[in-house]
Backbone:
């Protein structure tokens, strides 16, 4: 069983506005940076026995653009067969990926608002 967590950038209408404003590349960088923070959060919150699960979450090859979207949408692909089991069934560390996504969501929304308002965003 494979796990695929998607960080969807924006819907089609908002993406058209971003493209018209010339912020397409900035938004893509923002979405990628957000996915990196999700990866780091999952790495820090994940259960560690051998370190294989968490190190695979952090690997760059497990982060790639979502198929069918040119920019602004990134996927986090698990590197192990038991990531989903650990995510939902671990006694003390369950929801380590979901908590990382939940923690990142307000930061991502704030960064999008800043990008839309000022035409730039900061870390």
Residues:
């Amino acid at each position: 069983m494979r796990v695929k967590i998607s960080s969807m950038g924006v819907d089609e209408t908002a993406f058209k506005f971003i493209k018209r404003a010339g912020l397409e590349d900035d938004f893509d960088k923002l979405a990628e940076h957000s996915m990196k923070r999700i990866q780091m959060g999952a790495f820090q919150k994940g259960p560690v026995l051998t370190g294989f699960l968490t190190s695979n979450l952090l690997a760059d090859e497990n982060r790639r653009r979502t198929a069918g979207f040119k920019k602004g949408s990134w996927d986090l692909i698990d590197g192990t067969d038991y990531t989903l089991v650990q995510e939902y069934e671990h006694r003390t560390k369950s929801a380590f990926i979901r908590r990382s996504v939940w923690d990142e969501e307000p930061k991502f929304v704030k960064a999008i608002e800043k990008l839309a308002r000022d035409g730039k965003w900061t870390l």
About this structure: The chain is about 55% helix and 10% strand. The chain has one domain: 4-118. The chain has a mean pLDDT of 78. The beta strands are 4-7, 63-65, 74-77.
